[in-house]
Write a structure and sequence with these properties.
This protein is an alpha+beta fold. It has six helices and six strands; from the N terminus they run H-E-E-H-H-H-E-E-H-E-E-H. It has a two-stranded antiparallel ribbon. The longest helix has 20 residues. The chain starts with 14 loop residues before the first helix and ends with a helix.
């Protein structure tokens, strides 16, 4: 595996959504970066995700980190599916309980430093904390791809806030092709 090989169809989203996007669907098959997708071992998938999320230099790819990330991913999946679910909120809050922000004053001015009693919670906490940032920024722009066969999430950064697809090249094209096929069948 090379440092740049990432089998996921969508990367580069904010870290909370990028963690959700470690599960995706390809040709009807559910895949999981942390469970052997593309022939990667669980630890290779974790290492790849930490690298792509910009966390590899601060956190280790080990079994406790993976377990905590899976907990955070489940919490995020549940809260994005049903933001009103009290159990989902409790699960996300439990992940957030494993870290805190410490204000600091640096030579450059005021700053913030995340702190963890157990560093294995760092990536999971970072993803959960990032989700709160997205909620404060623009909760209506946290989206699931509109294609019925897609499970990917994205943060809509389009000017007018009308992005519907994880990728216009993939799911947007599929939807257009499907509509074209349906119209051509109606014409015959």
């Amino acid at each position: 595996m090379t440092a740049t090989t990432d089998p996921r169809p969508l990367t580069g989203e904010p870290v909370s959504l990028d963690l959700l996007n470690t599960r995706w669907r390809h040709e009807g098959e559910d895949l999981d970066l942390f469970a052997g997708a593309a022939g990667l071992s669980r630890m290779e998938g974790l290492t790849l995700w930490l690298r792509s999320a910009g966390l590899a230099d601060r956190f280790r790819a080990d079994a406790p980190t993976l377990i905590h990330l899976l907990t955070a991913r489940e919490a995020l999946a549940r809260i994005t599916t049903d933001p009103e679910d009290p159990a989902a909120r409790s699960l996300l809050d439990a992940v957030l309980g494993h870290g805190r922000i410490r204000p600091t004053l640096t030579a450059e001015g005021p700053g913030e430093v995340p702190e963890f009693e157990d560093r294995a919670w760092g990536p999971a906490w970072t993803a959960a904390h990032d989700y709160l940032r997205l909620l404060r920024t623009a909760p209506e722009r946290i989206r699931t791809c509109a294609h019925e066969a897609c499970v990917l999430h994205f943060f809509d950064t389009s000017r007018n806030g009308t992005r519907r697809w994880c990728s216009m090249a993939i799911c947007g094209n599929r939807a257009k092709a499907s509509r074209h096929y349906a119209r051509s069948r109606e014409d015959h």
